Amino acid sequence: MFPEYRPRRLRANPLLRSLTGETKISLDRLIMPVFIDENLTEPQEIPSLPSIFTQTLDSVDEYAKHLKKIGVNTVLLFGIPEKKDSEGSQSFADDGVIQRSIKSFRNNDLLVVTDLCMCEYTDHGHCGILRGKEVWNDKTLDYYGKIAVSQAEAGSNIIAPSGMMDGQVKKIRNELDGNGFENIPIMAYSAKYASSLYGPFRDAAKSTPSFGDRKTYQMDPANINEAMREIELDIEEGADIIMVKPSLFYMDVIREASTIFNRPLAAYGVSGEYNMIINAVKNGFISESAINEYVTSVFRAGADIFITYFAESLAEGMKGKI
Ligand code: PBG
Ligand code: ZN
User: Where along the chain is 5-aminolevulinate 1 bound (predicted)?
Assistant: First the structure.
């Protein structure tokens, strides 16, 4: 008989394809990023992130209920404070916007991951403390330690440092352990690139640096060996979950990391990825199934966890939301 083997046999109908499909999207493995802005009185759609609304301190409770109801389990929180200053003091204030929001999500039985960085809180928009025009690594670590403890005290389930300072995971691990939070895991933004895909996030978080760029701390998009060194370091320093960010232009990095390391691997489908896909879909240039294809591709590349602005609409079964 020719052809001897017929791969088309397993493609004959939807049930067969579903039975033998290699990669499945599960809501259990998606994380929804959420912005909470202390300056707002009404939730506001982010112009560069269509269908994503920045929440207010008053709206978070209802939003958390909604996410729980549709089946989103985990959120990644970003706060935008009313007052920014040179040391980002609202990032570790007991009554800071994140500290006050965590409860609403916890009360609604969601798992809360808190992004730990200073760029939303500093008046200069950089991810740490400045010394002249430079971000001062070791001084910044002292602040990251304080922020970690503050977030843990407020009830965060997982601390996710995203500032790309050297030694940040070790410093945060030590501070958490020293304050009775030895059971709080760290999800480390290990290989975070200085990407052009963060623009919509910076609109929402009002965190565009007032001068320069982030290339002295975030990674050069050309590098993959360096990404493996960054991840290795984070694991040595105590990272429980490692991350590659962005996802779409970095699928090779995701695959390599998933092959080499035996830690849960998260990928972050950043704001620019969401923007490109949602706008192409909304304009009718590509079909809506691109969203499933995109999310599937990240898991196929080797991610265990996917942080994506599509989490909410995927949970809603993509009914009418897009
Ligand atoms: C803060 C942070 C950023 C993102 C996540 N955490 C912005 C940046 O580094 O400028 C980007 C996420 C996105 O674009 O969706 N350090
Ligand atoms: Zn930052």
Answer: 202, 214
Which tokens sit at 234?
């984070």
Residue 52 lies in a domain: yes
* Residue whose pair of structure tokens reads 């490692």 in the numeric block: 242
What's the pLDDT score for residue 322?
A: 47
Strands 49-54, 74-80: pairing kind: unpaired
Residue 322, domain member (yes or no): no
Give the ipTM of the model, two decimals please: 0.97
Listed residue (269, 275, 272, 321) closest to 295, CA to CA = 269
Question: Strands 30-37, 241-245: parallel, antiparallel or unpaired by DSSP?
Answer: unpaired
Give the residue numbers spanning the domain of 210.
25-315
Q: What is the total count of domains within the chain? A: 1
Assigned domain for 225 exists: yes
pLDDT at position 320 over 70: no
In a domain, 9, yes or no: no
Q: How far is the CA of 163 from the centre of ligand 2 (A)?
A: 5
Q: Residue 29's domain is classified under what CATH number?
A: 3.20.20.70
Residue % of the chain over a pLDDT of 70: 98
